[in-house]
Design goal:
Number of helices: 20
Strand order of the largest sheet: 3-4-5-2-1-6-7-8-9
Structural class: alpha/beta
Helix content: 40-55%
Largest sheet: 9 strands, mixed
Distance between the termini: 15 Å
Shape: globular
């Protein structure tokens, strides 16, 4: 018989804190969870202040009895709702009080599990003290109100490893799930320019952690994976990585689904797409001093600023190669939407776009929308210069770097990412290291065909769903990528964009429809069954641990 939880705690540094893809995983899944477990799901995140936790609304009327008990125990938190579809309960924790006990906490982790916190640096302390606060919170609620019920604690990423280990040791009745969305060592190997895939069977996680100076993060991640009642990850490619580097094979694959409620209704889609395209073309016109034709092919890439891992180098290289492949009369405008070290929005560009200053010749740096603190050393700017992207009116391929979060208030674009991505004709994500990949999934949800690789979890899934016919004409082109075929990938991306640019409009429309159809197969209603299996697995293992 499959066991179901009575209550679920799920925690991540990205609860009510939009940092990266895990925010999207949790925020889109919450609606499905609320329907299945109404107000029996509590998301726990860090209290970063009212100006940072903007999607959180405090509500003193929720869990009032527990709030009184927690206050007596000295737990500092805010209770309320996460302002996302489903409006789940959320608790934001302040963990400052635990820093004075940091060494004691780390000593217990070493004695109980052999977690090495000695070489910690950077965000390790902040994450670990937050995780400890999470554990004490769950312990308090469980012991006072949930004893005897089937309770799940779901920890996301190494940052919550301390919480899982504490509960495993001191509140063994709580069943634990640990999900790694990317291993610390795997990401570090890839990000440091080493070959990850060819040599994976020869890598030893602890040794590589020492070599790459990520000992402490890897240590807590590995111990959490090994001690969880159910260990999970997000794709088959990352499962192989976990098995080798964390020395435990995942019990379940929790593919990253989504809800498409952020996609405009059909009646509004055309107008929103036109507005997005108009804004993107206007940015290019103001920067370059030229005029982009209405039929300009708009392409983009986006994600974290991980130059090799996200394939940003391949993207720029491909755009450089594309210049020689486009037939006469074809124009491509390529955007790199990747947050960097932003200093300020460009006042000269903002003035042109608002009409305060007349348009004329190209602005200085006609490939950049915001000034950076590190103009001389930024890798994207260096690569654009190296490839000679001057964005002259006569250039058939122009590349524009948008180095900020598209949150609607960046000072130049002033639209949210979702209000801009649908203006693209193609999205390109030639990733080297990508355990899943939300950006291509979001693109196809907006009917934008995309290019990805078979080193991305999403790419593997898309190829399987398309029965290996993963071409741009079918909505997603999945390019084979390895440790050694960088130039072949760049060439294939360029060839794909050129081919798509020359397709008849009817075939482009067909590709857009197929992209949208494929995205519907990734809705949470199709993927959530794996979570139900994970809950069952964790609850049964917890019963065994407690000899019940």
């Amino acid at each position: 018989m499959k066991l179901k939880p009575d209550f679920i705690f799920e925690s991540s540094w990205e609860v009510c804190n939009k940092v990266g893809g895990i925010y999207t995983v949790l925020a889109t899944r919450a609606n499905t969870m609320q329907k299945l477990f109404p107000d029996k799901v509590v998301f726990i995140g860090p209290d970063l202040g009212k100006h940072s936790n903007t999607t959180f609304t405090e509500d003193s009327g929720i869990m009032t009895e527990w709030q009184a008990v927690a206050a007596q125990a000295g737990i500092k938190c805010r209770v309320g709702r996460w302002n996302i579809p489903g409006q789940p309960i959320a608790i934001l924790l302040n963990s400052q009080q635990y820093y004075v006990r940091k060494n004691e906490i780390y000593l217990h982790l070493w004695e109980d599990y052999g977690v090495d916190s000695l070489h910690a640096y950077g965000d390790y302390d902040e994450a670990s003290m937050f995780a400890y606060a999470v554990a004490r919170l769950v312990e308090n609620i469980h012991n006072n109100f949930l004893n005897g019920q089937r309770v799940i604690f779901h920890a996301n990423e190494w940052m919550l490893g301390v919480a899982l280990l504490y509960l495993h040791r001191y509140v063994p009745q709580v069943a634990t799930i640990f999900t790694t969305h990317a291993t610390t060592v795997g990401r570090s190997i890839a990000g440091n320019g080493k070959d990850l895939y060819s040599y994976l069977p020869g890598y030893y996680g602890n040794q590589m952690a020492r070599e790459l100076n990520v000992d402490s993060k890897h240590s807590v991640e590995q111990k959490a994976a090994q001690n969880a009642d159910c260990f999970t990850t997000v794709s088959a490619i990352t499962a192989r990585e976990c098995t080798q580097l964390l020395e435990r094979r995942p019990d379940e694959l929790l593919l990253n689904g989504f809800e498409d409620d952020f996609v405009p209704a059909a009646k509004d889609f055309g107008a929103k797409r036109w507005m997005a395209r108009k804004q993107l073309l206007d940015v290019a016109d103001c920067l370059t001093g030229g005029h982009q034709p209405e039929d300009t092919l708009i392409v983009s890439t986006s994600g974290r600023y991980e130059f090799r891992n996200k394939g940003l180098d391949v993207f720029v290289d491909a755009m450089a190669r594309l210049r020689a492949l486009l037939p006469a009369g074809k124009q491509v405008l390529a955007f790199v939407n990747v947050p960097a070290w932003v200093a300020s929005p460009r006042e000269d560009l903002a003035d042109r776009m608002s009409g305060k200053q007349p348009r004329g010749a190209a602005l200085a740096c006609p490939y950049l929308t915001h000034w950076l603190h590190n103009m001389e050393t930024d890798r994207m700017l260096q690569m654009l210069k190296r490839h000679g992207f001057h964005n002259r009116p006569e250039d058939n391929v122009k590349v524009i770097f948008v180095p900020c979060y598209l949150d609607g208030e960046d000072g130049i674009i002033n639209k949210h990412y979702y209000d801009i991505v649908l203006g693209n004709d193609l999205c390109i994500y030639p990733s080297y290291y990508e355990p899943w990949g939300y950006t291509p999934l979001e693109a196809i949800a907006f009917s934008v065909p995309c290019v990805t690789t078979d080193l991305a979890g999403f790419g593997i899934w898309a190829r399987e769903e398309l029965n290996a016919v993963a071409t741009i004409e079918n909505g997603v082109e999945v390019i084979h990528r390895s440790d050694t075929n960088y130039h072949e990938v760049a060439e294939q991306v360029a060839q794909t964009v050129s081919r798509y640019a020359q397709l008849p409009e009817t075939e482009k429309e067909g590709a857009r429809k197929k992209a949208r159809q494929l995205s519907k197969k990734a809705l949470w209603k199709h993927f959530f069954a794996a979570y139900e299996r994970a809950y069952d697995h964790a609850l049964k293992n917890a019963k065994k641990r407690n000899n019940i």
